[in-house]
Amino acid sequence: MSLGPCEIFEVGPRDGLQNEAREIPVAEKVALIDQLSSAGFSRIEIASFVSPARVPQMAGSADVLAGITRAPGVRYAALTPNMRGYTDALAAGADEIAVFASASEGFSQANINAGIDESIERFAPVLEEARHIDLPVRGYVSCVVECPYDGPVSPAAVAKVADRLFAMGCYEISLGDTIGAGTPDKIARMLLAVRDVVPAGRLAGHYHDTNGRAMENIDASLSMGVRVFDAAVGGLGGCPFAPGSAGNVATEAVAAHLAALGYDTGLDIDTIEKAATMARAMRAV
Ligand code: HMG
Ligand code: MG
Fold first, then answer.
1. Is the CB–ligand 1 distance for residue 50 below 6 Å?
2. Ligand 1 atom nearest residue 98's Cα
3. Is the Cβ–Cβ distance between 188 and 224 less than 8 Å?
4. Is the pLDDT of residue 285 over 80?
5. How far is the CA of 270 from the centre of ligand 2 (A)?
6. Which ligand is nearest to the CA of 239?
7. pLDDT digits (tens, 9 = 90+) for 26-77
8. Which residues are tagged catalytic?
9. Contact 178/142 with Cβ under 8 angstroms?
10. Interface pTM (ipTM) of the complex?
């Protein structure tokens, strides 16, 4: 019996590769994205228009967007922390963008060199401009359970930032367990607070698998009505400014898990497995 649709938002080419130590050539990234493009995803995050001094791995993002073969029905997404990033992402042809905030001050400072309030001020013109041209903007909230600098984060703090991003016009709020500190109980408590301000249908779970609990956290989120999950093919990933943030939960594992539970992901597991093999090889070289 089908339990209905459930979407995986593929973040491997961005969240996955941004943290790899080896400088990965644009051609390799393009090959991975082209493989992912035929797997059945609606959205794939492939680029990041941030300071190349801070995240060297994402420096070739415009070339990546120029190099891919676009599949019909797939939106290719890019991170944009400020107006400079927005302008560059548009010029490069991103189909949607994402602003990224944190529920904790410590990570906000370390990641984007701004406190939470200041980061939201930087996002305001981005959302304003995007609204004029109907460009979809996703909003991330990092450290939804714990911050590597400030420690435990309250569900109320997460709800406050999620509420602000949603009110500004983000079409979906992705909740990042940046260092994989979540447990099903903690995730459920956090979602209970966030659901009061953003409908569950506009939420996504973005769970890093640092402690091997991401899949249980997905299950807890499913029971709270969340039906979109971010994942990285091959389990690639981590954030350079969050010590201990291991890879995102692996796309191939989430796809198999959701299918076994009875959800329709529209994904082709064989194609994803091929992409996972490519992703793991990129890491291993
Ligand atoms: P800043 O230092 O506050 O800004 O940076 P600034 O205006 O003082 O500029 C500093 C330098 O960056 C200048 O260059 C600017 O030109 C340049 P310099 O004069 O020193 O040569 N700059 C830019 N360059 C390219 N693109 C831009 C841009 N803006 C300024 N858009 C900024 C603020 C956010 C840019 C910086 O702190 C930065 O790039 N941080 C990196 C953030 C990042 O990419 N983090 C990883 C992604 S977030 C993540 O992984 C978490 C997530 O997965 C969810 C989860 O797991 O929780 C989403
Ligand atoms: Mg992440």
1. yes
2. 58
3. yes
4. no
5. 25
6. 1
7. 999 999 999 999 999 999 999 999 999 999 999 999 999 999 999 999 999 9
8. 239
9. yes
10. 0.98
